[in-house]
Amino acid sequence: MKQTELKKIGIIDGMGAFAGARFFQMLLEKISQENLPFPEIILNAISVEDFIADPSKAIPAKTIITKRIEFFNQQKVSMIVMACNTAHIMHTDLLKIAQSPFPSIIDLVVTDIKNKKINKIGVLASPTTLKTKLYEDNLLRSGLTPIIPDKKFQILLEKVIRMVLNNKLLKTDIDKLNTFTREFIEKNQLGGIILGCTELPLAFQKVKFKDIKIFDSLDILANAVVNHLKC
Q1: How far apart are CA 209 and CA 115, in angstroms?
Q2: Which UniProt key words apply to this protein (predicted)?
Q3: Using CA of residue 29, residue 169, residue 203, residue 69, what is the dihedral sign?
Q4: Topology annotation, domain 8-104+219-230
Q5: Which are the contacts of 205, defined by CB distance < 8 A and separation ≥ 6?
C-alpha cells in the first residue's frame, strides 16, 4: 500500500439518502481499486425539506448545510463534497464558509465534458436544477451546447427521481426512462448525456447506451475525491 498522508473527507448527504449511500460505496470501491489508505470519512446525512421542484424551499436547507460545513471546519477536514446536484444552487455562498477545498459537482462534470471534447450535451436533472440553469449556464460559458429535455420528459425525470428517493422505483419507470432518453438522444443528435441528479444513476441503465458518453455526476465526484487523496 502506498505511504500517503492520511486525509479526512467531509461528505454532506441526506437530500437523497440512497444516492448518498451509493456514492459512499462507489468512493470506497475506487479507493480500494487505487490501493490507497482509507481516509477518515465523516458522512453527515441531513434531513431537509424537499426542494427538488421549488428552489425557494432550499433556504432552510442552506441554514442546515452551513452548520455542517462549520462542523467540518472544526474537524479540519481536507476536503468537503456535497453529493447532490440540486443543492449546488447554494454552492457559491457555501464555498465562502468552507476552510478546505469544496469542489462544485457542476464544475467537475463540465470540466470532464470539455476534456472529452464533446460539444452537444443533453442535461437530465431535477426541475430545480433545470429551472435555475445550473448546468446550462456553466456549459454555455464553456462554449458547449446544452440541450434541455422538453416538459414531458422533465415530468418523467422528476417522477423517477422521486421514486428513487422513496425507494419505490419500478421496472416500468426504468423502461420509460430508457425510451425517453433514446428518443432525446436521436432527436437532438447528442454527443453525450449528463446524469445531473445523483438519483438518476440509480435508475439509468448505462448498458443500453454504450453508443454515447454518459457523464455520471456521482462517479465524477467520487473520482475528484480519489484524486485529492492521491495528492
Answers
A1: 20
A2: Isomerase
A3: negative
A4: Rossmann fold (3.40.50)
A5: 174, 178
